Amino acid sequence: MTYQQIKWLILILPTFSIAIWEYIRHTFLMPYVSMEVGNILSPLIVFGVTVIFLLKLFSILEKIQEELNKERTQKVALQERAKIARELHDGIAQSLFLLSIKINKLGKQAKLDTNPHFIKMKKTLQQIHENTRQAINNLRVPPEEAEFSWIETLVQYIHELEREHHLKVDLQWNINESLLSTKDKVELFACIKEALFNVVKHASTNEVWIDANQNQNGWLCKIKNKCSEQHIKRDHRGYGLQILEDRAKAMGWLFHIQLLHGDILVSFEKRR
To answer: Environment class of residue 255 by beta-carbon count within 10 Å: exposed (0-12), middle (13-18) or buried (19+)?
Structure first.
């Protein structure tokens, strides 16, 4: 049943119900049902019949709406993937390619081809370039239709970061995934990655606390870690935190930075 058919049925059903009842009433029930009783029964019968059918129609309508929302979400996700892939190709991938050419020329001119440090640097650059190209290809290939869990992806990323950089992340995530739009998921994941990267790069300890909760007004995500006093005084509004603030501002979120007893607390809040 299509969306248009459901709309017409919703419009026609009450009229059709009252017409059938009045026909039955005047044709078969006039000797048994008085005019006053018939007038009382008319709205009750029409209401009961209409509700029974409308509940079914509304259920079908809700399923159609859910499918439309799912398709719209998938379309937005695919557009976002294509945009990221294009930016990676036009920016980082080409820059890495030009850098590798310049390094090769430098190696030949300076006769560094046998230098172990130079060889290691070339291999590292090549690996980064290959990883970037692979990431571009992965973004261009549509994801499988299997159920995608954004929260599971976040947890997996944190586990990988813990293994690679010996971080200890205390994650307390209590935001229902359905509360986040596709754009929210993309930007919030990017903000968390940037915040954790700042910890790896600048923090004085390897402990991070992520606390995310929802409430009647929306949701709130807090990221806290210990930081040296020197770093707090010098860089608490550095480039990394400025990126977080700009992302939050673009999304219409509230962004806060608090410095408490050697801890730096960054929070993102979305209000309805």
So the answer is: middle
Taking a C-beta distance cutoff of 8 angstroms, is the pair 179, 214 a contact? yes
Overall average pLDDT of the 219-247 stretch = 73
Q: Are 54 and 101 in contact (CB under 8 A)?
A: no
Ordered strands of the 168-174 beta sheet: 168-174, 207-215, 218-226, 263-271, 254-260
The residue among 86, 9, 14 whose CA lies nearest residue 47 is: 14
Measured over the CA atoms of residue 200, residue 203, residue 206 and residue 212, the dihedral's sign is negative
What is the value of pTM for the model shown?
0.51
The structure tokens listed for 245 are 């603030």
What is the pLDDT at residue 239?
A: 61
Torsion angle, CA of 153/155/157/159, rounded to 10 degrees?
Answer: -150
CA 102 – CA 119 distance, rounded (Å): 14
pLDDT digits (tens, 9 = 90+) for 33-78: 888 887 888 888 878 877 888 788 788 878 888 888 778 877 787 7
As a whole number of angstroms, the distance between CA 111 and CA 109 comes to 6
For residue 189, pLDDT over 70 is answered with yes
> How would you label 195-223 residue by residue, b for 16+ Cβ within 10 Å and e otherwise?
bbebbeebbeeeebbbbbeeeeeebbbbb
